[in-house]
Amino acid sequence: MELAKCGLDCGSNGQCEEGRCRCDNGWTGAHCDQKTCDDRCHDHGQCNNGTCVCVQGWMGTHCTLEGCPDTCGGVPRGQCVQEDGQWSCRCNDGWGGKDCKTKQETKCADDKDNDSGTEIIY
């Protein structure tokens, strides 16, 4: 049949033309056996058989969402970490917020605002 005429098995996702597989939309590879990703994936991710695998700091279906805003405030404020496939900032002690830029009170029991040097008045 077609395999005998062409010499290639293009599976159900492509057709053999002139000794090569011409893949249907959404498929790629020498035998049309790998799913493609949305073009947006290639900005901040790598396509792995139809799944966009995001590089550090990016997330979402097409890796278009910034997962670690402003690099988590940089060292020593926090690090960008991946948990359950999502990137987020893990803030170091003394820092908080989505981007680890909020200085946190470190000595709550002394009734002083140690971060600005003023006494707390109730």
UniProtKB/TrEMBL annotation:
Q: Which InterPro entries match?
A: EGF, Teneurin
Q: What is this protein called?
A: Teneurin-4
Name the keywords, alphabetized. Disulfide bond, EGF-like domain, Repeat
Q: Does the keyword Disulfide bond apply?
A: yes
GO BP: motor neuron axon guidance
Q: Does the keyword Manganese apply?
A: no
- Listed Gene3D superfamilies: Laminin (2.10.25.10)
Cysteines engaged in disulfide bonds, as pairs:
C72-C89, C91-C100
